[in-house]
What does this fold into?
Amino acid sequence: MKEHIKKIKKDIEIIKKRIVVKTPTHFSLYHIFVSFFGALILGQTFVLKGLLYTVSYNLDIGHIIIIILATLSVLSAEIYYIGYKRVLKKEKRPFGQFWFKRITTYFIIAFLVSFGLIFLYNMNSTLIHTLKIAVAMSFPCAVGASLSDLVERY
It folds into this structure.
């Protein structure tokens, strides 16, 4: 009988962590799939805008660097404030490791989805202009990737 009560208490703690406290789970293949679809959904809304094509054509190297830095900054803030703040045992899950897995995944997914949408809708012209469009689209795609993963889970 005591074993049965201990198992029930353990199950209650697991349910509490998952539903009430909403502790982030470890990064897995599931996170990658959810991120991919989030990037695809948000990227889809931007790819059909003619303004994106025009604006990206006029981007210079300074703007490209600023877009990349802004993307990394927003992703880092989302990872910390939406995901890492909910980690209970921070000493066992250092922020650097938590952050690095997610930011590299979201950033790579954002560019892959950007390139995929660019080629799907035949927006590619020269290599330089295609890269500029991909950088411009990577920002909303990265936000979609991280939000769909972080918010959906937590």
Q: What stands out?
A: The longest helix spans residues 127-153. The chain has a mean pLDDT of 84. Helices lie at 2-20, 29-47, 50-57, 61-83, 95-120, 127-153.
